[in-house]
Every structure is written in structure tokens, then in C-alpha cells.
Prior knowledge:
Blueprint: H1 7-12, H2 16-29, H3 33-45, H4 49-60, H5 65-77, H6 81-93, H7 97-109, H8 114-124, H9 131-144, H10 150-160, H11 168-180, H12 184-196, H13 204-216, H14 220-231, H15 235-247, E1 250-252, E2 262-264, H16 284-295
Antiparallel strand pairs: 1-2
Amino acid sequence: MEPPGDLMERARAGDAEAQCDLGRFYFEQADDADAAIHWFSAAAKQGLPRANHNLGVMAANVDRLEIAKACFAKAALAGWANSNQALGVIFRQEGDLDRAAVCFAKAIEGGNAQALADLASIVMDGTTDDRYSEALRLARAAAQKGVAGAYTTLFLIYNEGLGVPQDQLAAVGFARQGAELGDASSQAIYGVFLHAGKFVTRDLDEAAFMLSMAAQQGNYAAQAYYRRALDSLNDEQLARLDERLKGAGYRHMAPLGGNRFWRVWIKRPLSKFYFHFLIRTGQSGKLDKLIAEGLRQK
């Protein structure tokens, strides 16, 4: 696959933006991680913040978190808000919630909407008296900006009545909105409610579809409930689910224990930070070396 237009020519001429775009082309479309790292590194050496961010994404997705943090820190210092959000995700994963909260707050200042939802989840688990009202404020702001993950926080607040009157019907509505936007936690929650027919009309087909999408994104609750949802379907319903999943970009995998299982292989854009971007992990040693070389810059 050849890069579009004069992108290669401009990249070879030293255009940092073109080099970064060429790296994205090789990573997202040509499935060539080596070439992607080469061009991201070239752009990063010229001081392009988003190139360092993209190197961080590649490192994080093969669990090279120290390298990822170094890449994100360079980009964040240069004012790339998405990298502050990415650092917050890593610190949260490592259990350092104070540093995560600081990173998310900086990302919010830089206009990163996802960080609003991230900070809301940390605040809600805190100990301050106003934690629920502050989490609600942040989650609402994130939801207004179209952040799917914010709806899980809104579900939890209204489902449990945390600082607001309990309203489980509204809570399920929030789960539905998040599910439709692709949030795995919301899909798992909404799938379970659809399967049970609680606060929503029972729909076994939609329940199985929602749970399957959440399961492939690594949601443990969906993975645990998935078999139960499939066992509720007859052969005709399973066939419809099969076609629907294929139409959504899923690939049908081998049966597990008599039930069906799907996994998606969809590449997500590098402009934001995702841990679930799929890359061949057999390349991780080579990625270590190439990314480390890209970090050796002034």
C-alpha cells in the first residue's frame, strides 16, 4: 500500500507534520509498525509533540509503560493535552491516583474532554464531602462533549442515588446513551438490564449484541455474563447476531465450550490514547529498540 499524494516526498524533505502523518498511515492503514516508528521518531526529533504522543501510544499498547510515560511526558511538556490525559491513564493503572488526578486536571485545562470523565471517576471514589456533586458536574460536562465513558459515572450516581435522588430509570437511560457511543462499561450494564428486562423492555437479541461488544473490549463483567446471554438465544437469533457482529466489523472466532465468541480487529486513531489498540505483540522487542532510539533527542 502506497502513501497518498505527495506525503512521502514531503516527509523525506523534512516536513515534521508530513512525517507524523506518514507514521499514522503506516500504523493505521499499512500495518507496518517499523515504518510507523521510523517516521514518528523523525518527527519527534524535530520537536513535534503529537509525534512523541504517538510513540507513547505504540509503547503503551505493548505494555512498555516506562517508555510510554517518557514519550507522553515530552509531549505534555510541549503542551499536548492528550498526553497529559494518557499519563493520567497510566498513573491510574499503577494506582497513583494523586498524580493521575493532576494529569487529568492539566489535560482538562488543555481542552481534553476525555479527562473530564477520567477525573470524575477518581473524584467519585475519593473521601471529600462534595465528591458526588463534583463527580456529577465533571461527568455532565464530559457527556455534553460526547465522551462515552462519562455515562457510566452518571449511571452509577443515579442508580445508587449518590448525592441525588435515586432514579434507576434515568440511570439505565444513561447506560443506553453510553452504550450507543461505544463505551464498554455502559454496554455491559445496558446489556445486563436488557437481558433481565429491568427498567427497560426485555430484548435478548440486543442484550447479546451489547454484551458481545463489551466483552471484546475486555470488560470482565460482560465476559462473565456473555455465555448466559448466548444461552438465551435460539439458532435463528444466533444467526442474526452473527451477521450483525460481522456487519459491525467483528470476525467470528472458534467456538468456546459450545458457545460462540467474536473479537473485533478495528484500528482506532492515534490522535487519542487507547490501551486497546491492537498490534502484534511479537514485535515488542523491536518496538522497544526503535522507540528508545526515537527518545534520544534534545
